[in-house]
Amino acid sequence: MGRYPHEATFTVMDLDCLVITTEPEELFPAIDEVIETVNTLAATASLDLHGSEVSRLGRLARFAEITVPASDTLIDYLRAALWAADLTGGLVDPTVGSLASDDTSRGWERIVLGDGVVTLPRGCVLDLGATAPARAADLLVRRLAEEHRGGFLVSIGGDMAVAGDHPDEGWRIPVTSPTGKMLQLVSTTRAALARSASASTDGAPAVVDPRTGDAADRVWTQVTVAACTALEANAWATASVVLGERAPDWLTHFGVSARLERRTGTTRFTKGWPHPRLVAA
Question: How many Å apart are CA 245 and CA 260, to the nearest integer?
């Protein structure tokens, strides 16, 4: 962002990360914790790593329903994903990676979490790419505020959360396009922000509509949402990309503040989102 003296941007496991602290001596400890968190996130939830926990479960569930031990971290990420699925009526579905299989392999309602174990239907492939980084950002920023001095802003893969003290003017956060162009500067003291983008020139993967198994219609190039947590913001934003034209009315119905960018270059705002000037979110 380049607006704060105690700020660092870096990439870990292909995820863009941002850390800002109000206290200069807390920046490097916070960076270390972000790196550790993202490495754990990847080892647990990355489908790109053959040895990750979700990859291993996908191989085990390929030919039969399974009930197997799972780490506390994976259980937490799965619980967060199921919460997001319930919140959005299944529009954000952690079994969307199973859509190439028969219908019995998919459906978030068929995942069962137990005490240290998880049950997956035959053929289920877990895709936590939408929700796990947001959940990780929420948990980490809270821990940093509890264990260190001052305030913190943490962004993992574009999912941004804040906790602790904040600058007098609030955290000033640029809303940028997928190509990096700044569209708006907003200020927040407590709200988390998340962005979901459709497949675009920056290489963002296509958001899949779990109702059809196809890529969502590219009505919106991206949707940015403010909510109480990065997980919640991410869930609303991802679901909005899936819903297309219906998204603004749907978000309004649930009282969600959002900015939606059309492919044509126009922008829609829902109630509560500041129009393009600096206003607290």
Answer: 10
